[in-house]
Design brief:
This protein is α+β, with helices and mostly antiparallel strands and 170 residues long. Strands 1-2 form a two-stranded parallel ribbon. Helix 4 crosses helix 5. The radius of gyration is 19 Å and the shape is globular. The protein starts with 5 loop residues before the first strand and ends in an 8-residue tail after the last helix.
Length: 170
C-alpha cells in the first residue's frame, strides 16, 4: 500500500544484529514497503516536523506496534496544545492489551475467558498467565468490566516516568 511517508526504525541491535543488522522491521518489510512511498529513519525525523507540514494536514496516521503480532493503531490528530516537554494522552478507551497475547484474536480470547460464566481449562490457563506472567499483566485480571478500563492519569504518569520526569496527573 502506498503512503505519503513511512518512518522506519533504526536497528536497535546495532550492525550485524537482528536480521544481519537490518532490524526487526526488515522481517515484514515486503508487506509494508511501496516503491513510491518515501521512507525516513526514525532517528532523522521528529514527529512534529511531519505533522506541521501542510501536505500531511488532516491525513490519517497509522502506527504499528510489535511487528510480530502486528497491532495497528489509527491516530487522529485533533490539534495542538501548549508545549510541555511531555507526551500525553488526552483520550482513549479500553484496557491496555497484554504483551505477547498473540494478535487481536489472542486478546479477544483472553477477554472472553474473563467473561465466561464457567471458564474451561484453557481459559483458566490464559487468565493465570495474564495475572501472573504477562509482562504488563494485571493481578486483578479483566473481570467485572476491567477490560474497558482506561485510566488517563495512570497512563500519563507512566509516560512521564518513561521520559524521566515524575509528575502528578489526574
Amino acid at each position: 500500500e502506498r503512503y505519503l511517508l513511512r518512518i522506519i526504525e533504526d536497528d536497535p541491535y546495532g550492525p550485524g544484529g537482528f536480521q544481519g543488522g537490518k532490524g526487526i522491521d526488515f522481517m515484514h518489510n515486503s508487506a509494508r514497503h511501496h516503491p513510491q512511498t518515501p521512507e525516513k529513519k526514525a532517528s532523522k525525523v521528529k514527529l512534529w516536523e511531519v505533522l506541521d507540514k501542510s501536505q500531511y494536514k488532516d491525513m490519517p496516521l497509522e502506527y504499528e506496534y510489535d511487528f510480530g503480532d502486528c497491532w495497528f493503531h489509527e491516530i487522529k490528530v485533533v490539534g495542538r496544545s501548549d508545549v510541555t516537554g511531555l507526551f500525553q494522552c488526552t483520550d482513549g478507551q479500553g484496557h491496555g492489551v497484554a504483551e505477547d497475547v498473540g494478535c487481536a484474536g489472542g486478546w479477544e480470547e483472553l477477554k472472553a475467558a474473563y467473561r465466561a460464566a464457567r471458564p474451561d481449562k484453557e481459559q483458566k490457563g490464559k487468565m493465570l498467565w495474564y495475572e501472573t506472567q504477562a509482562r504488563n499483566g494485571d493481578r486483578e485480571g479483566l473481570g467485572n468490566g476491567r477490560e474497558k478500563r482506561w485510566a488517563k492519569g495512570e497512563i500519563n504518569r507512566k509516560l512521564a516516568e518513561l521520559a524521566g520526569r515524575a509528575t502528578n496527573f489526574t
